[in-house]
Amino acid sequence: MKKFPIVAMLAAAAIVLTACSSGGATDSSSTSSAPTDLKIGNFLDVTSWDPANADIGFDGPYLSAVYDPLIALDTDSQPIPALATDWSYSADFLTLTMHLRTGVTFSDGTAFDASVAVANLEHLKAGTLSGPTYANVASFQATDPTTLTITLTQRDDTLLYLMGLGRSYMVSPKALTSSTLATTPVGSGPYVLDASTSTAGSDYHFTKVDGYWDASTYPFANLEIMPITDATARNNAMLSGQINVNYAAATDLPQAQQNSWNVSQKVAGWVGLQFIDHTGSMLAPLGNEKVRQALNYAFDGASILQSIGSGAGVATNQVFPDGGAINDSSLNSTYAYNVATAKQLLSDAGYASGFSVTMPMSPVFQQWQAVTQQSLADIGVTVTWDDMSQADYQTKAATYPMFVSYLAMDSNPNATVAQMLTTPQWFDPTPEYTQFPELVSLVDQINQATGDAQTALIKQLNTQLTQMAWWSVWYQANNIYVSSPGITVTPITGMMFPTLRYIQQG
Amino acid sequence: MLRFTVRRVISGAILLVAISIAAFFLSHWAFPNPASAILGDNATPSQEAALNSKLGLDQPIITQFFSWIGHAVTGDFGTSWANSRSVTGELASKLPVTLSIVIFATLISAVVGAAFGIVSGTRPGSAIDRVVKMAAVVLFALPGFWVSLVLVIWFAINLKWFPAVGYVQPAKSFAGWLDSITLPAIALSLGAIVSVAEQLRNAVVRVNGQEYVRTLRSRGLSRGRLITHIVRNASPAALTVLALQFVGLLGGAIIVETIFNLPGIGAVTMSAANSADIPMILGITVVSVLFVVIVNLLLDLLLGIVNPKARTS
């Protein structure tokens, strides 16, 4: 399981931290020629320079500056070569063989080879945050200096995607065994951190590596990343020209237009109700499909998206990303807002007078508390809120039958199935699909299929889950990036902030 | 004066120890399972147990306390559970940022507040007095975050005189450092300027009406020397307010640090509280209290020097 749903919560918090935006100024730094310096305003500071303890979410720009991954993703989230030049699976999908790039050295002069890759992968497998990516790996083996063999305990269709997402960064073997890895990165990436001019927590300066093997992918001569948690401060930094790429809020868009900045956005997470109890073991009504469907009809996702999400996103009732291979726009009308239908379904299920439910609440989710309470009250469902800190929400929310959630999405369909349905997560510690034979059958078929057949089966699963009202999804929220003229950002669903290869001149 | 100083040092030390003890037990009570918060939702029970053992959390709470305070008195506050950095090192890097803007704001408050207070206090009822009083009301009513934003828009975005965000270490560039703390310090100081000016103005008016001032005036003392006498006797109230403002500014700095994206203790405090980083929480608490004690001690000593009667109170 990836860590970034937690980071996604912080992103959800960021959405509400946008009330006060300054206005009226123009960006005098804007030029028609492509800037040679990339200055990023990121939402969060780097969690750790140790890839095993880093978050995929907002750590991408930092880690991709100094480290090379074995595998990267293209703009369609398909695995592409990086330090691994090619790879292939055995017929039974239990052995993955990779050939590695030669002539690569880390910034401390150490050479990269298969034994270094094995040491790194074992380090990543042991990591609390990175470990789940390699949960199905039995062993890593350096067959020869340029060949790596990964043996799996079971087929894992998410492995290459997760490695490309940010779980295969390679660290110098010397740094790997040092105690300073969390604060001092030593990699083979396109840039090196300039500690003498950087201030931890404030701004990080990087200098480009001469002769880097993939220099054309990283066109900027100088790189600076400033972690700025406050959205207003980030926008001010953009207006003043201190940064030229910003993780923006929807409320910043008018100024972006006024300043002729480039804007790119893509769905990043879904907002709605996470049902923990589909069998009625904690709250009897939730075991009834009609009740869950009523809880879908009760919410006007499009209105909530406009009023709370500033319209930055897509009203949908699916957890597969809008615009992806699985999301079916024709399903979005399945639970069009209809209080009368919701009440009728409750009545049909034997809950004509509604029922009561206790739900957790933390500061991050308070932006959706009022609409949740009102929407449920409209169909006769009474909510009692248990207020708690965000840290407690993280550990306790899943002990309630349902709760308000903002969960990061994956662009890879198999990863979405694993993340949202089949593998234990903090928001779903005991996946209940195993108690529904129709879902078990579909998941089994997906795990056996490949290519288009597998895609068709996942679409079928999506339809099934929507009909079963497995969640009450209100909308999918966008992550927004603005950049000065001459810089373009390509958002990737699955990365809260895209890695540097997706930030280009042009 | 020596007894007075010793008494103040002892009372400050008692306060520091008492708050340290309370902070230790309250933080452990508030975060009963920090291993879970640190490792996140992926952690297995065995990983949590291993971390508890590594951090000493499997020891009795009293044992943990004496271990912590034994190191704390040597200046070693342990290692952050969130990022594995030394707490003392983190405080050493973050505290100068916060102290930079707080001390600068205090200096601005003292100078500008004193100027306003003296000018309006020596001319009560005059036009300038009324202007200063009106300005005081307006400045006091302005929210700090709004003032910060206005300063950023005008002086950073429009005029580009100062950076909108960020901090430059003085060792890297003194001018850059001054640039980076000027707007935050101004934003932080406005409320304190008003308080100091109000206190000093009222004290100057009161002292100005006393008989010894009339006597001095009748003896033909120059206006400058007369004001020196008046301010010396009127200053204790303003000094007290200034010291209290210093403590308040430490708290107010959190908002200013957020708006100007300064890597001070404000963000670290929030982050430590959210991530159950008890060593960091305790380090920040102890050092903050230490500064409050030191500032109050200095104020007491200053008041004792300015006004000998204060030594016996």
Folded structure, characterized:
The complex is a heterodimer of chains A (506) and B (313). The two termini of chain A are 35 Å apart. By secondary structure, chain A is of the alpha+beta class. Chain A has helices at residues 4-16, 56-66, 114-126, 159-167, 173-176, 231-240, 253-258, 289-297, 301-307, 339-348, 369-378, 390-396, 413-422, 437-448, 451-467, and strands spanning 37-42, 68-69, 71-73, 79-81, 84-89, 95-100, 137-144, 147-152, 169-170, 191-193, 204-208, 222-227, 245-248, 262-275, 313-314, 355-361, 381-387, 402-408, 471-483, 487-489, 503-505. In chain A, strands 1, 10, 11, 12, 13, 14, 15, 18 and 19 form a nine-stranded mixed beta sheet that branches. In chain A, strands 5-6-8-7 form a four-stranded antiparallel beta sheet, with helices on one face. With 313 residues, chain B is mainly α. Chain B has a domain at 88-274: MetI-like (MetI-like fold, Orthogonal Bundle). In chain B, 77% of the residues lie in helices and 0% in strands. The chains are: A alpha+beta (506), B mainly alpha (313). Chains A and B meet through helix 6 and helix 12 of A and helix 2, helix 7 and helix 11 of B.
Strand content of chain B: under 5%
CATH class of the domain at 88-274 in chain B: Mainly Alpha
Q: How helix-rich are the residues of chain A, as a percent range?
A: 25-40%
**Helix- and strand-based class of chain A?**
alpha+beta
CATH homology group of the domain at 88-274 in chain B: MetI-like
β-strand amount of chain A: 15-25%
Report the largest inter-chain contact.
A-B, 44 and 43 residues
CATH second-level architecture of the domain at 88-274 in chain B: Orthogonal Bundle
Low-pLDDT runs of 5+ residues of chain B are none
Structural shape of chain B: globular
Averaged pLDDT of chain B: 85
Radius of gyration of chain A: 23 Å
- Alpha-carbon distance between the termini of chain B? 12 Å
Q: How many helix segments of chain B?
A: 12
Which class do the helix and strand fractions of chain B yield?
mainly alpha
How far the N terminus sits from the C terminus of chain A, by CA atoms, comes to: 35 Å
